[in-house]
Automatic annotation (TrEMBL):
Domain of life: Bacteria
Protein name: LysR family transcriptional regulator
Secretion signal, residue range per the UniProt entry: none
Keywords recorded for this protein, A-Z: DNA-binding, Transcription, Transcription regulation
Length: 302
């Protein structure tokens, strides 16, 4: 049984197609099919039921895949650890970030990280804080940048509080409140808002602020894409509460401080359960680039 055979079987299992699996593995389909058949012959079972149009896992295949994935992960981890022992970091770094990250200049940090560790590949996922926390806990993401209400904290991993800030009102340049030195939530109670989807942490902090003030508001647009939210405001369709750092200088936008606006905290979170060499190296670079005490003063919650 060879590691390449395991990679091919996992690719077929994930894509449910020999053609797509071959493209994913950058190999001709005939070679991939031959290796899968050779492995099936060695195991004495069929892993896939297939026709010219359809591929499905057999019962044996469904039982084989989890262990095969674990074995491949362990082999790749062994190679990474050996490289790290030799002074080189290899492998993959999976990052997660909210769309409103302001506490860290992530492109600058990644530039330094990639310069120091050129053998590490990097992927990034943008999602809500709740989804990112779940992904860290599940081992799908190594490091995540979060935004949570200032009374909350990540659970299920290690974290550092990066920054605290009060959100501002983002208005169309011709809005009646533009130019004010400061406004309050009751000034916005009749507005149509653009906000993150209901149930997300970014939305919850805004809803909680209006509820605490005894006010109702109408959210007319929901979106995870900050650029879309800003364009809605620029077209006079909505108002939003956002961190000032994510609002670019545009002729059609204006920001006004909120005296009683919601406050949020930005966090760095990661799992200390068997961290990869790439994740450890990224945290080290982040510490140097930002001055954060990533290795000390940490809190853990389960």
């Amino acid at each position: 049984m060879e590691l390449q055979q395991l990679r091919y079987v996992l690719a077929v299992g994930d894509t449910r197609s020999f053609t797509r699996a071959a493209k994913q593995c950058f190999v001709v389909q005939s070679s991939l099919s031959h290796q899968v058949k050779a492995l099936e012959s060695e195991l004495g079972v069929r892993l896939f039921a297939r026709t010219s149009r359809r591929v499905e896992l057999t019962e044996a295949g469904a039982a084989f895949l989890p262990a095969a994935r674990s074995a491949l992960d362990s082999a790749e981890r062994a190679a990474q650890d050996a490289a790290a022992a030799a002074g080189e970091v290899h492998g993959h770094l999976a990052l997660g970030t909210i769309p409103t990250l302001t506490a860290v200049d992530l492109p600058r940090v990644l530039g330094r990280f990639c310069h120091e560790h050129p053998h590490v590949s990097v992927s990034s996922r943008t999602a809500s804080s709740d989804d990112l926390v779940a992904a860290v806990r599940a081992g799908e993401i190594d490091v995540a940048f979060l935004g949570l209400p200032d009374t909350a904290a990540p659970r299920g991993g290690r974290y550092v509080r990066l920054a605290d800030e009060r959100l501002v009102a983002v208005l169309h340049r011709d809005h009646r409140l533009t130019g004010r030195r400061r406004i309050h939530l009751h000034d916005l109670s009749e507005e149509s808002f653009a906000d993150f989807p209901a149930g997300t942490a970014g939305r919850a902090q805004n809803d909680a602020a209006f509820t605490a003030a005894g006010l109702l508001r109408r959210v007319a647009f929901e979106a995870m894409d900050t650029a879309l939210v800003l364009d809605l405001i620029g077209n006079g369709l909505a108002t939003a509460l956002l961190p000032a750092g994510v609002v670019p200088e545009r002729d059609d936008l204006a920001t006004v401080p909120l005296g009683d606006g919601p406050q949020r905290a930005e966090y760095l979170m990661w799992s200390d359960f068997n961290p990869t060499a790439a994740a450890t190296a990224f945290l080290a670079v982040l510490s140097v680039q930002t001055g954060l005490s990533v290795q000390t003063g940490l809190s853990v919650q389960n």
